[in-house]
Amino acid sequence: xxxxxxxxxxxxxxxxxxxxxxxxxxxxxxxxxxxxxxxxxxxxxxxxxxxxxxxxxxxxxxxxxxxxxxxxxxxxxxxxxxxxxxxxxxxxxxxxxxxxxxxxxxxxxxxxxxxxxxxxxxxxxxxxxxxxxxxxxxxxxxxxxxxxxxxxxxxxxxxxxxxxxxxxxxxxxxxxxxxxxxxxxxxxxxxxxxxxxxxxxxxxxxxxxxxxxxxxxxxxxxxxxxxxxxxxxxxxxxxxxxxxxxxxxxxxxxxxxxxxxxx
Length: 263
Hints:
Layout: E1 10-14, H1 18-30, E2 35-39, H2 42-51, E3 56-60, H3 68-76, E4 85-89, H4 93-102, E5 107-110, H5 115-127, E6 138-141, E7 144-147, H6 149-155, H7 159-185, H8 189-203, E8 207-208, H9 209-224, H10 231-262
Parallel strand pairs: 1-2, 1-3, 3-4, 4-5
Antiparallel strand pairs: 6-7, 7-8
Helix pairs in contact: 2-3, 7-8, 7-10, 8-9, 9-10
């Protein structure tokens, strides 16, 4: 196994188990990592991430305080980073991999971690074209992840139905965003709550985790009329995320149209 795979690379590992920490660090160093930082939970990992520059992040999915899913979401949203993230799970892999992609991770591997499965995952994330995902149902750009897995599952891979769902999302979401912006300017917290709630329902089908997390926060703050100072930045964040999602889904519509024409 090549010991140059991670040559001159700095790695952050978020893992709460001491034995697993030692094992993963040992493997990473064998693969040539110049430095490996260890964090015992997502909060500690987030603090390290803001203080240092990392080339790849490994995150255990089940950790106390803040788990790997929340940490990955924070990297993609609050920290706006495209750093490769590899999830690690002790559960059956197929139970977790879709969720990993939804939260913005690039790969997910099953424990026990071995030099073979870890090096394979690292090779995949480093060889992937920037702005892409290992799953064809996951669209990624600028740290934004659009997950179409549920749409494909519901449709039974019916491309005409998938196109209709995507187009409906693109047609209706701007209205929800405009409503949120108007309610915010009018300090209409009940209206903002209702608009965010409608957007959340849409985002639970065509999943844009970064938008969904921000909308959930808006919904909660508007309903309780609390943390109102955070609402302008959250609404702006949702609008910014939608611009990226809109571009990704527009390209997806063209692909679907071309596929249907060629059949």
